[in-house]
User: Fold Iron ABC transporter from Bacillus coahuilensis p1.1.43.
Amino acid sequence: MNGKSTVGNIIKLLLATFFLILFIGMSIIFGYTDTSIPLAYQAFTEFDGSNEHLIIQTVRLPRAFIAACVGASLAIAGVYMQTLTKNPLASPGILGINAGASFAVVFVLTYFQISNLNMFTWVSFLGAAVAALTVYFIGGAGRQGLTPMKLTLAGAAITALFSSFTQGMLVTNEAALDEVLFWLSGSVQGRKLETLSSVFPYLITGWFLALALSPIMNVLAMGDDVARGLGVKVGYLKIMVGMIVILLAGGSVAVAGPIGFIGIVIPHIARQLVGTDHRWLVPFAGLLGGILLLAADIGARYIVMPQEVPVGVMTAFIGTPYFIYIARKGFNRG
Assistant:
């Protein structure tokens, strides 16, 4: 990469960081309760216990941080899934993470009547991890080992299996449907910092590993045979990629429920802006993912005010046109 491209990418990263901070600020200020920049500043410097100050500190600040972290994690997980599977439409859901997490939550709610949000977090994390590990085990079986096609097929099969189980339980238990419907749609509303703090160590570990492995991912992107020829232990690398996806996507689903399209759309936008070098692609995708989810969450507050649309619905509304564009572009190339 020449110096001109490097400088350009640095500028783009700085701009993305600025916009991420800007959208975090907007998320803290905008909403049904009327607030302003001075009022938000006073909430942290001269807290007086007023309703507005309480909303800013206990509702909007956690919501903004959770949206930024979840969006960044889903986008980075999407980058790694698309590189691993060589599939431009791959996303964290391809490993059955969303389906596994949803199944686990509905299962404990149906059979154990657990409705605590923090318990949902850990149960969904466990379900996401179990589903992803199952997909990796099935995809790695056989003579050829873990291949992109086998991984994709195994993920589709496990996703269909868990989704069917989940729908079956919801049909027979309407109370469970009422309890988890908003969570199943994907939402950052009503989440607390304690919810984020419980999985944040896993998210930050995933971010660190993703950045650390980014140079090697450039080699893997050239193909397994080329990577092996250059001395890369492809099997171990794929296991590490799976761990990263489980940490990032599993932690995100645990906090906010299954939120789609970010893991598909953002990696493509990031590649168009900074290229395919993972050393730039990973941090830039993380920043864009945070921005997109923050923007979607802010918009969700105004669509049917005073009610709110689940942010997963907003990301689908934003991401579907671009998803269709990616699919058509890939089809035309084929």
Notes: Residues 20 and 291 are 5 Å apart (CA to CA). The radius of gyration is 20 Å. The longest helix spans residues 51-85.
